[in-house]
Amino acid sequence: MAEAKKYPTPVTNPETAQFWEAAKQGKFLIKRCTACGEPHYFPRSICPFCFSDKTEWEESSGEATIYTFSLMRKSPTGPYAIAYVTLKEGPSLQTNIVDCDMDKLQIGQKVKVVWKPTDGAPLPFFTVA
Amino acid sequence: MTIKGKAYIAGIYEHPTRHAPDKSTAQLHAEVAKGAIEDAGLTKADIDGYFCAGDAPGGAWPMVDYLGLKVRHVDSTETGGCSYLIHLGHAAEAIAAGKCSIALVTLAGKPRTGVMPPRAAGAEADFEAAYGATTHNAYGMCAMRHMHDYGTTSEQLAWIKVAASHHAQYNPHAMLKEVVTVEDVLNSPMISDPLHRMDCCVVTDGGGAMIVTTPEIAKSLKKPLVRLIGHGEAMKGPRGGKDLDLTYSAGVWSGPRAFEEAGITPKDIKYASIYDSFTITVLMQLEDLGFCKKGEGGKFVADGNLISGVGKLPFNTDGGGLCSNHPVNRGGMTKILEAVRQLRGEAHPKVQVPNCDLAIAHGTGGLLGVRHAASTCILERV
Asked: Quick one: average pLDDT of B251-270?
């Protein structure tokens, strides 16, 4: 088994700092607009739907289903499964499905958030629930 | 206001090279510029507008200086592989507005020889960069979902490569000239599920260029007359993650705009240049442009329907990006060039579409499964 994959450290910025602070506590945050009610991800200060600045942080359940995936077989760091998952709260996001039998992945499969360390805040990934 | 018939493509040139370790990138731009200017029967001094994208070293001002141009209009819109399809539309707008009268558009680079410079990061970088989205797996995710939703098969996707290979055998410059079968595609190694190696385009050094001008100037030159009669552009991304649907591209917006402006429908098209970074790219775009219903692309492309002289919609008769050329990992320019050859009657006799008077050149740029642009150009022989 190769050593644990090294992931890039989030750069962070004033708009997203709270997400990464929460990540250090194992909390997966999304944003919700209190004007139109829509949740979104990745987090923006202004709602990408109604353009209101009334957006608030909200903790996600971290529960999701696989919308689609592709097992990348030709990679210098070994095969990996890129995917879009749809959170229970609504937004879909890009991720990798990790720590599982990648040959058995299926669209519609239930997954949950799992954190992987970097030199700074940890990064969210998903694994089979 | 419309650009319909306001701009003509008077000169085209595709660099014959597919591997250029002995040339600089700027030099390749100059060589394709020279080729297109000569094809039009013009001189460099006639050029008063210049268009380039992210492949031009340093951008527009170093290129204008390097080429020794004196222009009154520039546009360096960067939308990846479809930049040049957007440039054609923007050149028509500039010409219609009197901002320039003879525009040069160039594309060139050497991804086969050296590593390409990284793209600048967007606001999403911290939330996506770690997951390793590449062209292969981003398009793989689209294919996977398309198969799930519509029952599209790998055999159907393979027919797209088979058709491209049938055309490439007649192109002396094509990187891959061998005719392949559906079985060959399915037996090639899996790269990123469900895309096999032969579902992927080639990586080539090279480039291409075109001259876009006014009706009056085009008519004073010697080449057959080819004009732009409709153009559309659009962008699509996950947009906050709401209602994600990777089974369609921004072509669903750019296509209808172009057809409406041209005043024609997909049924009128005699030849189609369709961006073919991967087989799935072609299938989704054909659906999005209205050549068949959403979800029926698999059936549409099967059994040689895209082969010139065999099927109903001859496509990419130069062999396309899948077999001939995908210079700088950007296929938009070569899509226009082959459409112009077809309209001029200059395609290889084995693939020339008889009486080809209406053609489409369509492409995407960026990553279909992540965020991308699309551009549609409808071209007519006058």
From this structure: 98
Query: What CA–CA distance (Å, rounded) separates A68 from A105?
Result: 10
A115 interfacial to chain B (CB closer than 8 Å)? no
Closest CA to B27 of B108, B103, B83, B81: B108
Nearest chain B residue to A86 by CA distance is B241
Which residue carries 């909200």 as its tokens?
A: A58
Binned at pLDDT 50, 70 and 90, residue A51 comes out as: very high
pLDDT digits (tens, 9 = 90+) for A2-25: 456 889 999 999 999 999 999 999
Measured between CA atoms, the residue of chain A closest to residue B195 is A70
The Cα B240–Cα A51 span in angstroms is 12
pLDDT range class, residue B120, cuts 50, 70, 90: confident
- The pLDDT score that the predictor gives to residue B121 is 84
Per DSSP, the three-state class of B379 is strand
Minimal Cβ distance to A73: which of B142, B192, B242 = B192
Q: Would the CB atoms of B241 and A71 count as touching at under 8 Å? A: no
Which residue type sits at A16?
A: T
A65 in B contact zone (CB under 8 Å): no
Give mean pLDDT, residues B152-167: 98
* Edge-to-edge strand ranges of the sheet holding B372-381: B73-75, B49-51, B102-109, B206-213, B7-14, B226-236, B372-381, B358-366, B271-274
Question: What pLDDT is stored for residue B19 in this prediction?
Answer: 97
Q: Cβ contact (<8 Å) for A38 and B242?
A: yes
CA-wise closest residue to A32 among A9, A16, A49: A49
CA dist A24 and A56 (Å) reads: 19
- Whether pLDDT at A1 is above 50: no
- Nearest CA to CA, how far is A31 from chain B (Å)? 9
Residue A40 sits at the chain B interface (C-beta within 8 Å): yes
Q: Do A73 and B193 touch (CB under 8 A)?
A: yes
CA distance A20 to A13: 10
- Cβ contacts (< 8 Å) between A38 and chain B: which residues? 240, 242
The three-state secondary structure class of A80 is strand
| Inter-chain touch A91–B128, beta carbons under 8 Å | no
Q: Do B239 and A48 touch (CB under 8 A)?
A: yes
The answer to whether the CB of B104 falls within 8 A of the CB of B211 is yes
Contact B140 A49 (CB under 8 A): no
Question: What one-letter code names the amino acid at A110?
Answer: K
Report the mean per-residue pLDDT for chain B.
Answer: 97
Is pLDDT of A101 > 90?
yes
B52: nearest Cα among B104, B115, B119 = B104
